[in-house]
Design brief:
alpha+beta, two-stranded antiparallel ribbon
Length: about 55
């Protein structure tokens, strides 16, 4: 099933992906497909703020 809507990060319309950490619906540009998470969560992980991975 494809979900379409507005990205919770940049506000652009299109196909949405769900972040496995925060649950936010984000567009392809704001999503890290290889990790299954949004870019803000990815930045948090890289700097040790999420305590995951």
């Amino acid at each position: 099933m494809e979900v379409r809507g507005l990205c919770s990060i940049c506000g652009q319309p299109g196909k949405m992906y769900s972040c496995s950490l925060c649950g936010g619906l984000v567009c392809e540009k704001c999503f890290q497909q290889d990790k299954g998470i949004c870019k803000p969560c990815h930045r948090g992980i890289r700097f040790g703020k999420k305590g995951m991975i």
